[in-house]
Amino acid sequence: MGYDFGKIEVKWQKYWAENQTFKAENDSDKEKFYVLDMFPYPSGAGLHVGHPLGYIASDIYARYKRHKGFNVLHPQGYDSFGLPAEQYAIQTGQHPAITTETNIKRYREQLDKIGFSFDWNREVRTSDPKYYKWTQWIFIQLFNSWYNNDTDKAEEINNLFKIFNKEGNANVQAVCDDDVPVFSASEWKRLSNIEQQQILLKYRLTYLAESEVNWCPALGTVLANDEIVNGVSERGGYPVIRKKMTQWSMRITAYAQRLLDGLDKIDWPQPLKDSQTNWIGRSEGAEVKFQIPNTKFEIPVFTTRPDTIFGTSFMTLAPEHDLVPKITTPGQKSEVEAYIKSTAKRSERDRMADVKTITGAFIGAYAEHPFTKEPIPIWIGDYVLAGYGTGAVMSVPCGDQRDYDFAKHFNIPIPNIFEGVDISDEAYANKEKTVIANSDFLNGLPYKKAVRKVIDELEKHGQGKGKINYRLRDAVFSRQRYWGEPFPVYYIDGLPQMIDENHLPIKLPEVAKYLPTETGEPPLGNATIWAWDLQNAKVVSCSMIDHKTIFPLELNTMPGWAGSSQYFNRYMDPHNDQEIFSEKAINYWRAVDLYIGGSEHATGHLLYSRFWQKFMFDKGLVPVDEYAKKLINQGMITGTSAFIYRTKVGNRVTLVSKNKIKDFGGYPEDSNEASKPEAKGKNVLQKIHADVSFVNTSDELDIAAFLKWQPEYKDADFILENGKYIVGREVEKMSKSKYNVVSPDSICEDYGADSLRLYEMFLGPLEQSKPWNTAGITGVHGFLKKLWKLYHSGPNGEFKVDNLTNPGGILNNPSPESLKTFHKTIKKVEEDIENFSFNTSVSTFMICVNELTAQKCQSRTILEPLAILISPYAPHIAEELWEKLGHSGSISTIPFPKYNPEYLVESTKEYPISFNGKTRFTLELPMDMGKDEIEAVVLAHEKTQQQLAGRTPKKVIVVPGKIVNVVG
RNA sequence: GCUCGAGUGGUGGAACUGGUAGACACGUUGGACUUAAAAUCCAAUGGACAUUAGUCCGUGCGGGUUCAAGUCCCGCCUCGAGUACCA
């Protein structure tokens, strides 16, 4: 009886589903362990073999932890709001909910075939109103909060309101908009309700504000930076302009420092931490105020080099800076306006790509140096970004290369304030070696001391202060899309109001069209019913808006990251319709113990979700402020594309086999030869992707199948080698358009899910990216067959354990060498799982089974625990063998075997001995011999004596079990 | 440009704190069993000379530390990922 993986896998998958084998309880005496995957977006293309890599790794770990006696939470769900479903809807009119449902079904089928131990009772979908009710709920909590820098946490907005009533805002240390005026309690009370609300909005953790976005008028929507190529939209090639729009934003900047500090507490990959650190971009320096004489204006700038303040020879503002129109002199007006117009046309990307060209304009105004009181000309230039710092810089050309280049270009003086440094060719930016000169009270001071001194002086004169600036910006939270969470917001007199929590969720309305309306309103503007009836607390028809009891609703939807920022906590109590999760559930599960997912979310999801978690922590809703203790980034699995080479001979299309190209007098179009000028007019062969499913493991193309797929080559000539057409191979990203996609379904069908699981792990280290190559799977598949055989040694292939009652059939006493083999394996496998070295443990299994087979191991004492050991990796075959061994029920919670160190002790061990790194011989010594004893034996050894030739050894290096080294 | 990571056979990759480099697997070659193929099993497989027994060279390049370096230090080269006028 052979290894019939198909039958076994169907049987056990059905068993697990029927018996709810992997259901996690919120009530358990066992210790908890939470293993989380990043939930997938269910795309129409289905899964390819690259997708489940992380899921397999986390599944192995989850199953291992179950064997170790933990109550394991291992959930899965779908991040089902998103662009592709909406694009599809725009093209076909098909409702995104329908395509999403279809895709989820397909995903589920594919996932089930791989045999994951997910607790599907806890499935969540971000597009499900029962789920996004709580996304909307969190939004309301954020709206009702402000960030108090004194207590360093988020607090109720009502408290702020009370403080304003009592004493105004002079003593409030809050993270808020820059333009909040200082007011007293009496001034506050004199404000109208609307004015008060407008001020509170500047403090709320989610707020409405004008921000600059990439607007594509033709598409009628905002585009992200990566949706724009060379200044035009990626889709359609329409022009994109930068435009100010009123948008919802999240005040993530309030948490910048805590997001940085938190990184020290969590076990995440260093590169990922680095990229978050980078993204937050903390820099220390000072804010300096420059007055503009004879006006009420002052320009604050941020600088990391306040020590160079006496080197300031001009100021530069971002072209979009608010003050520019106000302070430009009439004589410069036309030039300045022309410049602003020309920069506004350039997209962010253009600006980035073209950093070499120096442009700018003098605006005619002068600021006053805070110390020397000398006039400083004010320029605008697009090397200064509106969104960073204050959008203005004090330009110190001797100390900053960009300022230097700008000064050179516009003939602005470059005063030197560094001692003993030549700045005739370039700026001098080495802070550590800086000694300041020509700088009044700073002369002779090194960088650090000078910085401190300047900040002291600035503060004394009210001209500035020490400041920490962050690169991180508040996150824009509005999208002009249909397929996302609606905001629980309506407007009275243009002011946003939260819908009462009791009326959530606010469900997405049906719309006629999924594109934004022509007036620029988001798709929800196309809904026939989409307004808020305050009295009756329900969504009603647009035509009835009277602004008295019926009010307009927010038409934007939330961005993709909204739904994924708290899903890990919702899994703990996913069916709770009273609370986002119960206190009991969150206090039991607390945090994710192991999170596995891709590094592409480093500065998106993984940052936003940490932000929300910290907010939830401040509100006392969660017990920990970092939700994932350990995180692992699995690498990408790339595809191995296949190419055919096409050319024309006369009028005939000719396809040339790879190794015949040279004989044919040609070369592939991307080869070195083809790029040389002499290649012109020579025989350059076009490379065309062939579907990898028509290519066998020896790179031979199945011509018949290929022609069926691409009938246009029916009449082509094939130039073969040895009767075969050999394709070219290249590693590329796995993608439909490259015809190199391998689906897990076909692998499961041909080799089984257990082979797929083992092979994905065997391919290489989890965190590395590596190419898929189906050919190699025969190795692990062969291993599973050997494993099966190990348990089936009878002459007719009957199960070996059936012979248990048959005298002489089964030896219950394993041989010492089998015990050694097996206990060695337990130790290694356990260590490997704990270190996430899944690839090497697969090798360990292979060695183990090979050795046990060679040793003719027939012992139940070994074969039983071996099945457990292997079950996290290959659960189906393990369950089947476990059953054949006479057990009922699932193997999944049977305790993991323990190794006995006694079996690992070797009685003697060969110790290689070397002298001066050259001469080597070995001694056989008992394993348990101590250091001194070994030394004595080594010295007494005849050969050692010869080698030492009468000299006394300086030292004997002993590493028990490893090596002995004698230094003569 | 900056930050991080990686360079080991024909290929994917092993090698724990420096301690017999190339585990395990793919591929290739030869053999067994077969009418044949598949499947299975056995053997060889870093390179060069010797082909019994051995010797020398080998972890991107050049130095260094050490009895001993893939591993540690210094200087380069190449590739990959992220980020980009951040004042």
Task: Write a brief caption for the model.
With 968 residues, the chain is of the alpha+beta class.
Q: Total number of β-strand segments?
A: 36
Give the low-pLDDT segments. 804-809, 914-921, 946-964
Rg to the nearest angstrom? 35 Å
Q: Mean of residue pLDDT? A: 84
The outline comes out as globular
Count, helices: 31
Sheet with most strands: 7 strands, mixed
Q: Helix/strand/pairing class, anyone?
A: alpha+beta
The fraction of residues in strands falls at 15-25%
The termini sit apart by: 63 Å
Helix content: 25-40%
Could you outline the blueprint of secondary structure elements for this entry?
Elements: H1 5-19, E1 32-37, H2 53-67, E2 71-73, H3 83-92, H4 96-113, H5 129-143, E3 145-148, E4 153-156, H6 157-167, E5 174-175, H7 185-190, H8 193-201, E6 206-216, E7 221-223, E8 228-229, E9 232-233, E10 241-250, H9 256-262, H10 270-280, E11 282-291, E12 298-303, E13 314-317, H11 324-327, H12 333-345, H13 348-353, E14 361-368, E15 375-380, E16 392-395, H14 401-409, H15 447-460, E17 464-470, E18 475-476, E19 489-492, E20 495-498, E21 529-533, E22 538-541, E23 550-552, H16 561-564, H17 567-570, H18 583-589, E24 594-597, H19 605-618, E25 631-633, E26 637-649, E27 652-656, E28 666-668, H20 672-675, E29 683-690, H21 703-709, E30 717-719, E31 728-732, H22 744-750, H23 753-762, E32 770-771, H24 777-790, H25 816-834, H26 838-854, H27 860-870, H28 875-884, H29 901-904, E33 908-915, E34 919-926, H30 931-940, H31 942-948, E35 955-959, E36 963-967
Parallel strand pairs: 1-2, 1-24, 13-15, 24-25, 26-32, 27-30, 28-29, 33-36
Antiparallel strand pairs: 3-4, 3-5, 6-7, 6-10, 8-9, 10-18, 11-12, 11-17, 13-16, 14-15, 19-20, 21-22, 21-23, 26-27, 26-29, 26-31, 33-34, 35-36
This protein binds one RNA strand of 87 nucleotides through helix 10, strand 12, strand 16, helix 14 and strand 32.
